[in-house]
């Protein structure tokens, strides 16, 4: 676990949480079904458009949400005996938009570098490259993986 903790791509003193200053713009629960990834993407994109983020943010938020939701569905809690859900929350703290994906798995995400011929393994590298910050938090009933974008002037 200590090795995995080193993959959290934020400074050690930085801790994100949907605190008092963060305004919740929307949240959605989806079943653990890969057919629902497009619904999660549309949800995040629509919030970015509805709240008049800067021009490129809806596309980037949609892409990064797709990567994190896909990771949660493919790698998180796949062996649970009962179906579980994912929760996607979008918040605003001043000029920053945060997208947070909660799942019931406590396995932390691992950033890896995919070889040029591999067909998967680039999702978190994309999130790292395009986001302002990203990271994960363990919770009592699972974890959340989040990213932030500079979305408003």
Automatic annotation (TrEMBL):
InterPro entries: Anti-sigma-factor_SerPK, HATPase_C_sf, HATPase_dom. SUPFAM superfamilies: ATPase domain of HSP90 chaperone/DNA topoisomerase II/histidine kinase. It comes from the Bacteria. The keyword Transferase applies. Residues 35-147 form the Histidine kinase/HSP90-like ATPase domain. The keyword Cell membrane does not apply. Keywords: Kinase, Serine/threonine-protein kinase, Transferase. Pfam families: HATPase_c_2. PANTHER family: ANTI-SIGMA-F FACTOR RSBW, ANTI-SIGMA-F FACTOR RSBW-RELATED. This is Histidine kinase/HSP90-like ATPase domain-containing protein. It comes from Sphaerisporangium flaviroseum. The lineage of its organism: Bacteria, Bacillati, Actinomycetota, Actinomycetes, Streptosporangiales.
